[in-house]
Amino acid sequence: MLRIILFEDNKNYREALTDAFDLSDRVFLTKSFKHANNAVKEIKQYRPDVVLMDIEMPGISGLDALMKINEAYPETKVMIQTQFEDEHRLFVALCRGAWGYALKSDSFDKLEEAIVEVHQGGGYFSPAIAGKVRRLFMTEQFTKTPLYTPLTEREQEVLEHLAKALKYKDIAKAMFLSYEGVHSHIKNIYSKLHVSSRSEAILKAIEAKLI
Amino acid sequence: MLRIILFEDNKNYREALTDAFDLSDRVFLTKSFKHANNAVKEIKQYRPDVVLMDIEMPGISGLDALMKINEAYPETKVMIQTQFEDEHRLFVALCRGAWGYALKSDSFDKLEEAIVEVHQGGGYFSPAIAGKVRRLFMTEQFTKTPLYTPLTEREQEVLEHLAKALKYKDIAKAMFLSYEGVHSHIKNIYSKLHVSSRSEAILKAIEAKLI
DNA sequence: TATAGATTCACCAGTTCTGGGGATAAAACG
DNA sequence: CGTTTTATCCCCAGAACTGGTGAATCTATA
Known about the structure:
The structure is a homodimer.
Chain A: E1 2-7, H1 11-22, E2 27-33, H2 39-46, E3 50-53, H3 62-72, E4 77-82, H4 87-95, E5 100-103, H5 108-119, E6 124-125, H6 127-139, H7 153-162, H8 168-175, H9 179-193, H10 198-207
Parallel strand pairs in A: 1-2, 1-3, 3-4, 4-5, 5-6
Chain A binds a DNA duplex through helix 7 and helix 9.
């Protein structure tokens, strides 16, 4: 019997999973937590075969917990389970060593199977996610780069204007560029920062003190 | 002869204005500065009739300088001159006591006339701006409110999700709302924060420590 | 109980942004 | 001197967002 622990803040969903795993003869849900603030300690205590980790939780996020767990117990297999499908979180999760990326919309059977796979050294990606993984591998050279490729001078300027919430048109005016010139720089910035929207770029830039 | 000083970081534009004012027999450009970091001190020294103030400058912004000048020398008439037409800056400028709001695309003659008007206790708004002023008065109740109307609990939640760069669809999932429900909250948030885009909302929320 | 505010949803018409092509010219580099 | 980066621009299609209007519930409060 395969032992797992669950980090999930949504009460309904947590209880639904608990009930479902009660009926499973392959996976035993040892314990579940509504936040991941003490995840590492709890991993130490319960030594699960697989960890099921939500992303959005009060306190530290599932992605941060993932990182800490992998630093402390790299042999522990963590599978992310979330409701969102954005590439940024996926990218971060992969970088931080997630063994799987399941969606809450997946059926319980799929989830159970995924857990077994992960335990056996395999991986699992929900179909919608799998496509994005491929795209990430095709379009991003993240294996050889640091957290992000450095921006060129001009890109940095554009980023600063982006972070003033100026419209493309106004950035163009301010930098004596065409709309398409701005657009082009922004596409490159997003690619380098592994984001896909202005808001993500701003948040990332603030976080990384790029601005 | 009416004495003005100019704060403007763009060298070309500054020199163009300098040359133009040299030929004017109504307005005398006493001095120009490429940033407004010591604006108050400089006002004290030169005691201009009117101050022409750019917004985007290295160091403190024209809008902040405007505020400081109005605190220290409320009788000094400051006219904003900028290339951007967004309502947010306009709103802030008005709140902080700008007497005019000119665009760099205005002709020099207009600018000169505007300066004279402002000196005589009038105001000046570039046509494109004037329409927005009206809209602000019609749609915003800013005269009686603090910097922004407090957000409701639910709006606050939406704002936090907004600031994670989640898509409307995903915010809806996370909050068990419909897309249109999210949309509705966001419209109210923007209105209360006097912004008109997600990026502005995030920046404002960070600034005001709402998140 | 009437009124106001908070919450939620719908429809619609734009506008803005995003991602995919591809292209050219200049600059940097080996 | 080629090759690679950088900077710039163009077109297109589709996704996402914004703003306006209107409306139904529910709750708290005068």
